[in-house]
Design brief:
Helix content: 25-40%
Strand content: 15-25%
């Protein structure tokens, strides 16, 4: 017997499901959506007070994202007009709700082609012409951040979100507030970050635009897409200590040299609960010429490869056609965990799936015989709002 992973159907926390989902999303984008042009990654982050409102209201988060995309596209079109170039911008954006130390940090990763797309001649099936633009300067990145900051503050002020004191309304918002304001167990460096190329910081807002991939670097583009679609928790950085506590390795050392967070299992669950994305909210969106209903999309996305001609007159076997939207299950496992489950460990031959066993009466005896749990854990009864006792217990 060989046990392999399928999906736990969780939302945003399971490292195994998130790893396979990130590989699936990145492969789909690189092979079927993103054209063979140079790309630049724009990363926009916000001060803690703005992150709190973005974490609570997914519609406000979408509105702020639209403001940023409009400013970025206007910046590209203006630079194109300076060079006598007329075209349309495109972008793929990822919303991330976490930081590298499992803290609540809503920010945007946006992949933008380094240029504009000009529509082909009407009635033709040619691809859109790509009009490259020079990379942005430090002053241009700072000016763009100033424009975004002014528009976001104007939106929040018009809605009255910057005037009143924001208080949590339920247990989940209490956990989010604690994660947002959490001070790590090492000295906090209050000094401003060092100035980097094509990076700007202003009043807690930050814009980074120094990550660039070449038009033929599809591997680097896939890594960028995988980075934007990744989950908050990395099992490679999580370990259990002998005393029962957990250590989570930081991505970058702290100012005092600390490299790990020491947490109890309950503290880890508190952090993860604050990072669960809201239900029915897409974290990957397409803009401009890559939007789902854009007229220019069909002329921008890569053309599918032509079908291979059969080498014999015998009709091909009737096999199920794989979906073009998702990678096969075995291929996802190979890309995510470097394990080819369809290769026999004894003879090296190829396995094939004979059947899927889903009936509980059949699956339970098999799991019991292998010594694995065959029944789901019991669910705790739901509590009515305001869940005061749960909130106090979690923050004690």
């Amino acid at each position: 017997e060989l046990l392999v992973a399928f999906s736990c159907k969780s939302r945003g926390i399971c490292p195994s499901c998130n790893a396979r989902r990130a590989h699936d999303t990145a492969t789909h984008l690189v092979e079927r959506v993103l054209p063979h042009v140079p790309f630049r990654q724009w990363t926009l982050s916000f001060p803690k007070r703005v992150r709190w409102h973005l974490a609570k209201d997914i519609h406000l988060c979408s509105n702020v994202l639209v403001l940023f995309m409009r400013a970025l596209f206007a910046f590209q079109r203006r630079r194109g007009r300076e060079l006598n170039l007329e075209g349309q911008s495109a972008a793929v954006r990822f919303i991330q709700r976490f930081g590298s130390a499992l803290q609540l940090n809503v920010h945007f990763h946006v992949l933008v082609p380094e240029g504009l797309f000009a529509a082909p001649a009407p009635g033709t099936e040619a691809s859109a012409a790509f009009l490259p633009l020079p990379p942005p300067t430090d002053d241009e990145v700072e000016a763009l951040l100033h424009t975004v900051l002014r528009r976001v503050v104007r939106l929040l002020t018009r809605r009255g979100l910057l005037d009143d004191d924001a208080f949590p309304n339920n247990a989940l918002q209490l956990l989010q507030a604690a994660s947002l304001q959490r001070r790590f167990p090492f000295p906090h460096d209050e000094r401003p970050p060092p100035r980097k190329r094509r990076c700007a910081s202003l009043d807690g807002f930050s814009l980074h635009a120094n990550t660039h991939v070449h038009a033929h670097d599809r591997r680097g583009l896939e890594l960028l897409c995988r980075y934007g679609a990744r989950g908050p928790l990395s099992l490679e950085r999580l370990q259990r200590r002998d005393d029962g506590r957990l250590t989570y390795r930081l991505k970058h050392p702290a100012p005092d040299g600390s490299t790990h967070l020491v947490l109890t299992p309950l503290e880890l669950l508190r952090l993860l609960a604050a990072l669960v994305p809201p239900p029915r909210a897409n974290l990957v969106h397409f803009h401009g010429a890559l939007a789902p209903h854009a007229r220019l999309r069909i002329a921008v996305v890569p053309k599918p490869p032509p079908p291979c001609a059969p080498q014999s007159s015998r009709p091909p076997p009737q096999t199920p056609t794989p979906s073009h939207d998702r990678l096969p299950w075995a291929e996802l496992l190979r890309r995510s965990f470097s394990v080819d489950v369809l290769t026999c460990l004894k003879c090296g031959g190829r396995r094939r799936v004979l059947a899927f066993l889903t009936a509980p009466d059949v699956v339970r005896p098999i799991l019991d015989n292998l010594g694995f749990p065959s029944r789901a854990l019991p669910l705790a009864p739901a509590r009515a709002p305001p869940q005061a006792s749960l909130s106090v217990g979690l923050l004690a």
